[in-house]
Amino acid sequence: MPITLNRHSSIPLYRQLVNALREDIVSGALAANYKLPPERELAERLGVNRATVLQAYQQLKSEGLIASHVGRGTFVCASDERQGTAPPWQILFSDYSNRFTYHDIAAADQAQQAPDAIDFATGSQNPADIPDDLLRNVSIRAFESADFQSTQESPIEGFPQLRELLADHMTQRGVRCDADNVMVLSGAEQGLDLCVRAFVNPGDCVLVEQSTFFPALQAFRSADARVIGVPIDEQGMRTDLLDGYCKRFHPKLIFTIPTFQNPSGATMPLRRRRELVETAMRYQCLVIEDDPYGELCYSKRSAGTIGAGGFMDVGGGGVTGGIAGASSSPRRPRELTPLKGMENAGYVIYLSTFSKTVTPGLRTGWLVADSHVIARIAALRRMIDQHTSSSSQLICMELLSNGRIGRHIERLCEIYGHRRDLMLDAMRRYAPDGMHWSTPMGGYYLWARLPDGLRAARLLDDARHAGVTFMPGDMFAVDEDDSSHIRLNFVRPDSQLIEPGVKLLCGTIAEAVQGASGHSSER
Amino acid sequence: MPITLNRHSSIPLYRQLVNALREDIVSGALAANYKLPPERELAERLGVNRATVLQAYQQLKSEGLIASHVGRGTFVCASDERQGTAPPWQILFSDYSNRFTYHDIAAADQAQQAPDAIDFATGSQNPADIPDDLLRNVSIRAFESADFQSTQESPIEGFPQLRELLADHMTQRGVRCDADNVMVLSGAEQGLDLCVRAFVNPGDCVLVEQSTFFPALQAFRSADARVIGVPIDEQGMRTDLLDGYCKRFHPKLIFTIPTFQNPSGATMPLRRRRELVETAMRYQCLVIEDDPYGELCYSKRSAGTIGAGGFMDVGGGGVTGGIAGASSSPRRPRELTPLKGMENAGYVIYLSTFSKTVTPGLRTGWLVADSHVIARIAALRRMIDQHTSSSSQLICMELLSNGRIGRHIERLCEIYGHRRDLMLDAMRRYAPDGMHWSTPMGGYYLWARLPDGLRAARLLDDARHAGVTFMPGDMFAVDEDDSSHIRLNFVRPDSQLIEPGVKLLCGTIAEAVQGASGHSSER
């Protein structure tokens, strides 16, 4: 049983071991009833951690290739024991799909599944904020006048009229573009998946914010990319470090959420935006700008334990009423200019969606990019899902017409800005010493650092027990666990539940602090 | 400039040439301003068609790597000519996306882009057959009663009510299944893409019908699978050869369109279906059953130069009115039982869609499979597009309710069966000697073999010039070009254009036959 493991491979050691043993078993090189070495012994022989061998054996057991008998050891199963009528799923699934780390998803689900708790965890809107009447009206209007025969097949890039409307919408937001540069997507996440397929080779390096949207991490890792986290602070990605990261890692892509970042709520100021785009261009590295929250901009607040970057207002007057996406003269802070609005060469690929501002059910997002990107992605999509549902596209056209969506988002910003304030007030009132948090200027999330020594994941159980739930920072961390932060969605709960929710949460944290100090003084 | 092309590779010769030249240019082996050999000369040197070299040069020009100067020849561009401020796209695109063979798509587009010609080429419905009123009614009905707040997010697998309706629909079609075994897709093609991602590792073998739906070939090849074509005849895949193919190639997947196959129109009889499923199970190989046309079953015809498999009717009486998908006691030939209805172990993954029976614009299809498959694909989709558009799902629920879709398909079968008969009659009347064709019992396509010596791709230009268009068999061929067959979509044109279209086509073929014999007698 000579086995050679390659420490420099991107394939984890335990999977290399699984593959080697599986091949030996399936080929018959290891006969039925062959007794495998004990885990510890094999680990020593291969010079690996015992956990690696343990994990490999467990995988092979789940495939029915080996079995352990208590007190006797681990044996190769006879092939007739293996052959049931069911397909051998574990052997049939692709390596690619095996790279999807299910446990992260399970952890997210667990945080969200607490039906009676006050929900600061889930990353979507409160269903009550979905504009039911607006959607019903625009949908019926869209279908009353629809000509299904001429809309039977949308171009892959989307209906020209919708692309026009989106190009106008983006131009008003500071990204001058033509309809040709816009592609309609089935959600912004699809855009991410398509970019990965269009650009990422196994082993390519992708830079991301050190804590980020975890499906993005998943998308890059599933493509066997090397994902490197760039440190962040309250002004988002540390672009002063970016040149060094580019020099060292030669990234092909930088993935960033520059505005109201998920999970940190941070917004990159103009200077950092410039630095990011210039660095990317210098290293011929593409930038994927994910911007699901950019339009949800609330009025200025000066409070907060950690001072936010500070907005520079443009157009006179403070940012008072949120961004009017469809208004003709938007008053928006210059700081919020999308990266895509700062270059024309084609390095930035911009993604956005209606999921955070209208409803995720539409599954409609869009991409703004160079024509090379659009053409390549269209060629891929032709073999995948052709185009975004015509019915969703017809509804979105109505939504974008006559300033409807602008008025809706304006209303939403008032409600959400108020909830943000409620949460900040409650945090100031109830947070125990040693806790720090950001002052988000928009978006969904407040990012809080726990008092020293507390672990977010462990706290979650107590919090759920107390009746409140949040997302532990670990979920978003690239490299190592970030157990010191928690993400609180302040738009999700009903307004009147925010103060009691924060009170419960902070009470739980305070108890944990006392428990920890009590525990440590006992030692 | 030593270049070696591999005639046995699945990569087209022109792309091999592009890759070799690109590498030489980028590496500097071919210096700036190097004069490339004229197309004819290089073609002779390599022993390939001149068109191959032409296509390769064109591709390199579009990449900015070479340029032609009239009267002087073709030269390698200096690298500073290539370096603008634009990103170096050709270097940035992934190998995966480079594997998408654009020229095939261009060929398909070319066949379809003949606005004034009678269209037997395009693989979709006649827009006039899209049920405009039905779609408007069900859409408005769906949205009048829709509760957008509770339907803001569909489960990944689809709304439970739609999965129920689809499970009923499938059970009536001979596939007993629960809602749990059904997943709503954004088109059947997405199901194919997801299956590739869930199951195919680079180098895995996939068996397909020797001529097949070309996006499927594309999906498998993009995943670097080894795609092997199993011979077909007028009864579909030669399942008698399948054991040998499985023994030799150890396929992970068999992809098949058993009913009204695209492009051959062939339908596998029950015996072959059994043989396929049994062989797959014996070799622990999954089967993807693509069934977009299965419900479009027309009345029996005995005519045709090549005799079709011959249907065994079930339930008494001939197959007279098409399949009533939603009727309670469908009269359907036993031959049409989907493969998925013939096994319970989980080996068959069934895909279908509303694109061919209602409209492709809905982008809604479905998958019936073992719970392991559903779970794995849901985990992937969670990171891709979450779920199929809620609005499309709501519309499909209404379509499937109250037997609406059954009545619509029944009507469609009458129209399409009539068009099939018109085409068969016209073929019998006008086809020149030496031409053979199938008698499709359903679906969209008639598959015809040209008289000896004619090449479909070459004929296409003449036919378009004459005012009629078709899809050359080359488009669908796995291994080698199939230049002897053409695919005719008989449902696409208006009924009154079928006879004149066939007349024009057969006239063109007859002329080509004469031209060929004249040409050969001249030699």
Automatic annotation (TrEMBL), chains A, B:
InterPro entries linked: Aminotransferase_I/II_large (IPR004839), HTH_trans_reg/aminotransferase (IPR051446), PyrdxlP-dep_Trfase (IPR015424), PyrdxlP-dep_Trfase_major (IPR015421), PyrdxlP-dep_Trfase_small (IPR015422), Tscrpt_reg_HTH_GntR (IPR000524), WH-like_DNA-bd_sf (IPR036388), WH_DNA-bd_sf (IPR036390)
Keyword Transcription listed: yes
Keywords of this entry: DNA-binding, Pyridoxal phosphate, Transcription, Transcription regulation
Top-level taxon of the source organism: Bacteria
Keyword Mitochondrion: no
Residues forming coiled coils: none
UniProt-recorded name of the protein: GntR family transcriptional regulator
